[in-house]
Amino acid sequence: MAKGTSDKSKNRPDAGVKNRAQIPAVSAHRTATAEKPRSSRRGAVVWLYVGVFAAIFLLEFLRRPGALLYPTLYFEDGVVFYRDQLLSASISTLFRPFNGYYLLAPRLIAFLAYFLPARDVPYLFNVTGLGIGAAAAAAFCLPVFRQILKSDALRVALCILFAIAIDNTESLATTSNCFWLIGIPVILLAMLPPAAPSGAPTSPRLWHHGTFVLAGALLGLLTPLTVIVAPIAAWQIYRNRQSNRWQLPTGYLLATVVQVAVYLISAVPADQKGSSLQAVITAFLVAAAHRVVMSPILGLRPSISLMAQRVAWVPLLGLALLEGIAFYLFLRGSRLVRLKTALCLYILGANLLLSLIGKGLVPQFQQIGGDVLYGAPRYFFLSGCAFALLVALAIEQCANGLFLRSPATWSRAPWAKELTMGLLLAAIFSPGLIANFHCESGEDFHWTGYGPLIDSWKQNAARGLPAAAVVVPINLPGWALTLPGTSLTNGGFEEETLGPWAIFGAAHTIVSTAQHHGGQKSLFVAGAGGAYTDLRTGTPGRKHLVTAWARSDCSQPASGGIWIHDGSTHQASVTKQVGCAWERISLEFTSTDLHVMRIHLVNSSSSALYWDDVMVSTER
Predict the structure, then answer these.
(1) Got the DSSP string for 510-566?
(2) Tell me, what DSSP letter sits at residue 103?
(3) For residue 520, what are the domain limits?
(4) d(C-alpha 405, C-alpha 86), whole Å
(5) Predicted confidence (pLDDT) at residue 17 exceeds the cutoff of 60
(6) pTM score, two decimals?
(7) In this structure, what CATH number is given to the domain that contains residue 536?
(8) What is the pLDDT of residue 375?
(9) Is 556 within a domain?
């Protein structure tokens, strides 16, 4: 009996310990050694993300080196967001929508840029744009997304594909278009499988719930693409109601409500023509073949070239590839794989339909082999990302099937399986990687030379002093940052050039000496269109009277008008029939807190029209 007791005591964890008070110390030591690998794994994850982020940032810089070597502003960063902040000089600009969207990132960067010398502003915008793009594309390498794609090599490869192969030229180094890239982590987080039930739900503190709801809402305010994931978010809230993973989808839904409300309040004009159901279906299939499959695999320009040559079998093959991958995953995959496939197809189709219908692109995609007139690859970016993820899921599914057939081969070298899958995915998209890597870097407009002009304009505007108009060319060529003066210049069109007036519409608009009301020249407008200029207004509520003289070319009466708006919804207009003699047209406009009035001289008829001696008087 004693012997049996002695044998059992040998197997006890505290056997041989005379002082049992040492046992807690041993347990603490074991806990510490268990925490050490966990902290090292956490460190490895951080270094992996930093490495992928740095690689993508470098690749983005190599694609558009001018963003840092000779920086200037790009696209709407200068024309809209920085300009709006300079005009308003108020924190209220942070909450101003643009084109029916609420975009927090460019508004916040423009607000910070206002306090910097103008020469440094492009660095802030461009570095932030490159950083946001790299951070968003690199997010998929994080271990949390193993629930979507288990292979680390495939996820890292997809991060590179998101940044290069899926053409995002318009989003490079721009905060105004980076919301398309921010859509990647937003959608991936929404695609995470529902949490498995684990008994009674835990009850974390209120601040824990609030933090995750706020994080989801913040992501939704960074990109209006949360509208696409709103149905998925609602489904996730229902499925995760017994767990603690409902907070982020709730934040998405709150942000979606805000974005939809902003769109409705902004009253963005919709496409009035509409499209038939057959036209929409045709455009959906053509765009899916051309922009979603062919562009990432072959490159945007090669795919456009093939479409222009009416090589119909290539897009048809691309469409067949997309359908084949989807059928393969539905037939051979598990229930979870089928769920992921369905979510990818939903994202692909929803983004495609919103772009085609919402942007009026249906008429551009009515032939499977023909000219594609519209560019703007940003509208198809997320659909291309969803297609790339479908290809990666198919590769992983196929590799898992091979592993089950010969487990001994793969188990001896698990890294070989990872490397093979990553290289296979890169090989499939290699033509697109090469073709889409090149993009227009822009020109060196010597922004630093314009910096003092912008700073002087900003100081005079802040002090209420007169300021001359400033026009600064930005990238890409054809774009310009225009800061209006406090007084109208070249209202008699006596200068050698039309500036600071700009042309709009399809009319033939030039400075002419054939007719003049005062001086020696006037503005000649033949056809529908005209010219416009901006003025900075002072205190909101002030009334401004705009007067101009107009006449026809005597061949037939013309319809001339003045149209004024503040860059948003507040506007006023007047139209008058004019004949062979000079006639005065006037319009009163009340300034708003946007501090700008854009004056249009409009020819709304097909006949020719002359404009001269435009003047603006302001009430005291």
Answers:
(1) EEESS--SSSS-EEEEESSEEEEEEEE--STT-EEEEEEEEEE-SSS-EEEEEEEE-
(2) -
(3) 484-618
(4) 65
(5) no
(6) 0.82
(7) 2.60.120.260
(8) 65
(9) yes
